[in-house]
Each structure stands twice: as structure tokens, then as C-alpha cells.
Amino acid sequence: MAPLSKNKIKYIHSLEQKKIRKEERVFLAEGPKLVGDLLEYFPCRFLAATSLWLQSHPNIYAGEIAEVSQEELSRASLLKTPQQVLAILEQPQYTLTPDIARHSLCLLDDVQDPGNMGTIIRLADWFGIEDIICSQNTVDVYNPKTVQATMGGIARVRVHYTSLPDFIRSQGKEIPVFGTFLDGQNMYEQPLAANGLIVMGNEGNGIGKEVEALINRKLYIPNYPQGQETSESLNVAIATAVICAEFRRQAAWK
Amino acid sequence: MAPLSKNKIKYIHSLEQKKIRKEERVFLAEGPKLVGDLLEYFPCRFLAATSLWLQSHPNIYAGEIAEVSQEELSRASLLKTPQQVLAILEQPQYTLTPDIARHSLCLLDDVQDPGNMGTIIRLADWFGIEDIICSQNTVDVYNPKTVQATMGGIARVRVHYTSLPDFIRSQGKEIPVFGTFLDGQNMYEQPLAANGLIVMGNEGNGIGKEVEALINRKLYIPNYPQGQETSESLNVAIATAVICAEFRRQAAWK
Question: Which domains does chain B have, with CATH numbers?
């Protein structure tokens, strides 16, 4: 086992930058639960762990393994409280096929916050949404904060980046395209399809004009009691969860 | 108008500490949208803003007002991208009355993440939950990250801290006490009450043993498709949202 060199620590920290992650086609994951989950799905280029963790995981495959002290791990880690193990994993390559919208899909239009992105991937995993299509300006799925917030969901949910207007247009007019708007229809009073595209917008600006023009089913998440003064909106991950739950309820338990 | 002294900047930064906020009975809020909202609800001890913001808000009441340059604001701010105005506001004092459970209530058992806490307050505001009862070890509602994440919800949702077991016991046996568990009943197949207590647990450990023993309606948020391998859980704010939405749907749109 190699020791943890200064250069390696520098390299690990450089993976906070999207540019470096993209060039190297890797991403960083930390903590025994997350790394344990992801090692089953992604080839591991490098792994640094305490002797305790390594002893309880004798059959790890990684390009390089470093046994580190808690103090060395702290220097390498991006977390406030580093936990036993960190891994550099290979980014998967997914293909966006035209027939992808046979299933319910979530489309993200410029979501910016890494934590929101990770939380959306985690809930997509819970609600059986296998693909998320993102506009090119959406936050990178391999941002370390996003990876941590997915809690392993990143292993099962495929995230694609493309032009949303082009993607929606490629799907044919019979595919319902849903989005939430303050002047939309109460989602509890609308039949929601078992397939279709669900568009969620940017934290501050909502859904962009070009994408909005392609939405043919405008929905509204009703507040309660209706008409009462309240927050003007829900957090984008919260809104995504409430909508996806309602799609699944109507499909399975209506 | 007073200039922004070094001591004042130091004081603002000290409000990151719960101990200081508690002693001073104040909290910090930043940004034109949030500060604009909160000034209508909480007395303002101190306000620092750019001349542009002050010009467009001629009728501000505050114990002290400082006109600051963008650079001075940056030094005072706790945000990565400071925005025009920050305010030190007085903490409200709420009374926890015994008849509070006539309405639906949310109880938080040791939720730790300031962002989750703020997001829960924001969604409680959306879903008409007027009071949140927190265990003593729950993160402080006046943590600056929490205040920012409420997006103004902190003005309308009253947050109380007390012993959850004592509070639940004080409510009488006819009040339903809901909580989510992996072995609970599918929440879509259960009649949910218009009033009652909804307990949400800590991010890592869930609901504590003593509180769990007092829960008489165990619920489960079904994943989809059921039985498929998925994340083991939802983020606590996401779970709170999905449950509160279902309570409101059953009350208003069933």
C-alpha cells in the first residue's frame, strides 16, 4: 500500500473542480456507507481508508489503496467530519436513447444547488425514476456535495445532460410534458400519466421561457388552506418529491 | 447613520454562535427578499444596507442603520454572495399552550442539519402547519443557515423547543401520534387525521426509542415500484413534505 502523498491530497482536492473531474472522468465519494454502496457499481481508481475499515473490507478492488491515519484522512477529506474512507471512482457513460420517455422522467432546468441536485437523485431513486435529464447549465452531478447528498442513489439513477428544448421536441407530441406553475391546475384534480416528462426549474427563476413553451400540462401543488398567506414557493427538491409521490400514488394506490 | 465598525462586524459574525444569539435574543437575516419579508414581523435592532437598497426603502424602522459599500457588506456577511442588506432581528417569544394539538403539528426529534430545518419550516408554512415542536437537541431555528433556508417561513411558523416525550404525554391518548417507519402502514391506505402529531426523526438515527414508544400510528412512505432495490430512506425534509402533502390531500381533495 502506498502512503498518502502531498500530491495525492492535492489531486483529491482538485476534484472539487468540475473541469478536473471531467478531464479525469472520475468523482469523489466519502464515508463507509456511501463508499461501500458505490464500490459495487463503479470501478475504483483510488481508495484511502483507516486500517480498521480496510480490515473489515478485505476484498476491495481499487487501482490503488492507501492505509491512512485519521489525521491524514482529515487532510485529504472535503468533509467537516471525515469518516474512515474516501474513494475516487470512475464516472459512468450513459447513452440517451430516443425511447427513454416510456418511463416517467424528471427533467431539471438549470437547478444550481449541489445539495438540491443530490436530494433529487436520492428521491428519484426512491420513486423509481431511472433517468434524470438536465439542461447543460444544471449543476454537475459529480460535484462532491451532490454525490454525498444522493446517499447512494447516484448508483441507480442515470443523469444525462443535453438541451432540454431539443430533447422535449424529440419526444413526439403524444408525450405529456408536466411542469409546476402558480397558475397551473391543482395536481390532485388532474389525472397524471404513468409516463411523461416532469420539468423542474431553477431555484430562483423557475422554468425557462423556451422550455415553458413546450409544457402541455401545467400543474400546481396546492398550499393549505388555499388562499392563506404563505411562502411563495417550495424548495425545488421538495416540490419534485411531492409531485413524484403524487404520480406514483395515482399509478399504484389511487 | 453610523458607519460599520470593526466591532460591529465582529458582533455580526458572533451571531453564528447559538450561545450569543440566545444571550442577545436576536438572529441574523440577509438579502433583500428575506429581510424585506421579516421586517414586517420582527423588530429590527440593526440594519446594514447599500445606498441603493436604502433609497428604495425610505420607511425602515431599526434601532440602528448603517449605509455600507458592497465591500463593507461582504466583510459583515456570512453568505458567499452578500446581497444588498443584512439585518439583526429580535427573536420572538412563543408560548406552548396545552391545546396546541387541535391543529396538525410537526414534531422534530433531534433534526441536526440547519438546511433541513429551514426547508421544513418553509414547507410547514406552505402546508399550513403553524407550530413545530422540537426536541431540545434539535438544531437552533435561529442558525443563520436555517433562517436563510426558511425563505421567510420563519415569520409565520412558530418553533418551540421542549421535551418531546413530556409534550406527547401531555396531549391525551385520543390525539393520534404519527411517525414513519420501514415497518409502518402504507400511508396511502390509512385515513390520516385532520389534527394530530407528526414526528420526524434525526437524519442518521431516526426517531428516538422513548418517543417511538409513544407513537400510535406507524406510517410508511411507499417507494416505487415496491420491493425494488432503492435508497434506504428519504431525506428528512423530503419525507416531511411528502407526509404533510398527503395529510392535506386527504383533508381537502380526497
Answer: 6-90 (3.30.1330.30), 98-252 (3.40.1280.10)
